[in-house]
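Methods: holo model generation. Sequences were used as deposited, without trimming of termini or removal of tags, and paired with ligand SMILES retrieved from the corresponding compound records. Each pair was processed once, and we did not select among multiple samples. The sequence and 2-acetamido-2-deoxy-beta-D-glucopyranose SMILES for this entry were:
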Amino acid sequence: MILRSPSRRDATLILAGALCTHLLTILAPFAPQAIVISHSLKGQVILEHPVPYEQAPDALPEADILGEDIRLSEEDIDISSSKPAVVFSETTLVEHVPGWTVFRDLYMFNGTLLIVSSSPSSFPEIRYMTSTGLAADVTPANIAAREPTQWNMDILSPEQAAQRWGATTENRKIMSVEGNTLLFNDPPQFLAHYYHFCAELLLGAWSFWTGAAHPNPPPPIHRAIFPHSSAAGWRDHPGFNSYFLRAALPSLTVEVDIDWQDRVVATAESDVDRAWHFPYLLLADRSAAFRGRLCGSTNQRTASESVDGLIARSKLDVGGLWWRPIRDAVWHFAGATENVPGVKLGGHLDEEYEETDKFTITYVSRQRTARRRLIPEDHELLVTELEALVARKNAEMTLTKGKEWVLNIVRAETLTKNEQVRLASQTNVLLGVHGNGLSHLILMPRTQFSAVIEIFYPGGFSHDYEWTTRALGMKHFGVWNDTYFTQENTPKVHYPDGFQSSSIPVYGPAIANLIERRIMQEQS
Ligand SMILES: *[C@@H]1O[C@H](CO)[C@@H](O)[C@H](O)[C@H]1NC(C)=O
Ligand SMILES: *[C@@H]1O[C@H](CO)[C@@H](O)[C@H](O)[C@H]1NC(C)=O
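and the model returned the structure below.
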């Protein structure tokens, strides 16, 4: 629902078309990306060929619209040979921040990602794009072991590539993996966890995918590859990762480690030197993201490199509107669509809040099952205070015709996935102890008073839910017993003894007061 200007876009299209027709026929032999391999072709000129988009002309409309990528079709090229030879396209960098990179025309041989380029200096340092994909800890040996080697990624000149894989159509040994690919280079360590998978990896990937295509809509995604994970490795215990991925991207095909090995073996253990070609690919790498400034030294959120990095380049909107296609797809999947609030889109961000006719507080209680939980009496007092607040507000509402207040006290594990999503789709204030129970914040509507209240062991703080809440345009409040903090006074990351405690204190009246005085104030 991002507003765009059709007239400008049309103009670009027309311009691109005109350029293509009238200029490129003349300029083609001198186009900088053309690969000229005269020795093997007796002077014949080989031009970059639009392999990826041929079979799916409408899959990537932005290839034409962007103008930066005006491709030549064989009809456009007037060369004397009856059969124009097709080799491969040089790799180009569409967008990059540490840990997130979109390439056109990336290659793979023997598990090594290969950039084919006559200007290697136009690419960032490889350590900001990839790693060995090993599980991470903070020992110096492990940090060193995650630094990429030439076996993880390498750069070849077009001549080297042509020498290895053949230059002509007839002996072509480049297999194109048609369509658009997400390549998640991470080990299962952080995959099998709803927060890290959906609220960090997918959120980061989608933001980057959207921003890289800016100002055009994001192209479809055809497959995701997890080269270091088994089929079970990316699935979390409650099953939310697979639920979410299938709901958000129903056409997506998933490949895992054994599938990747098939591709590796097909190149390396063969008497034919062949390689795979990925026309359009997003490479995500957690270790590489941690080498960036935002993730590495500010908030430890890999998605921040993408979201904050692309906001700084004006490729992404502030306030998380870019996330809505994913969120709305999951709502729809869960049958929450009837509850989708009215959307009011305007030129200014403040006008793009969603409307709800109720004010809904959802307290996710982890008292029965989770290790990290509240002191039982504090939990009881919190419930009493919330109930009293809601009863009082509804009594006032009868007088003032205001919004109806709703309180849900839930133990997520007693609800189905559909019920959990539907609940999140109606929640304005999500309240709970620091932990995965707050991950559903990525499915909340963004209203004027949408907020997440996260209870920490006093003195403790980490950015996981705080950054994610703000990235999606909502307010975050951290609570230490009877005090709270928010963006203006967020503390330093700290994991005191007790951070994982099963007797975390919280003062219920302080939370009720925070909701009534601070959050509802945002309305006026
Ligand atoms: C394939 O990669 C491995 C390292 O992962 C390397 O030891 C081996 O020599 C490579 N094989 C070829 C044919 O390049
Ligand atoms: C929490 O706050 C309440 C109210 O100020 C106070 O009575 C209680 O002692 C505090 N608990 C802790 C553990 O600090």
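Residues 481-482, 505, 507 surround 2-acetamido-2-deoxy-beta-D-glucopyranose (ligand 2) (CB under 6 Å).
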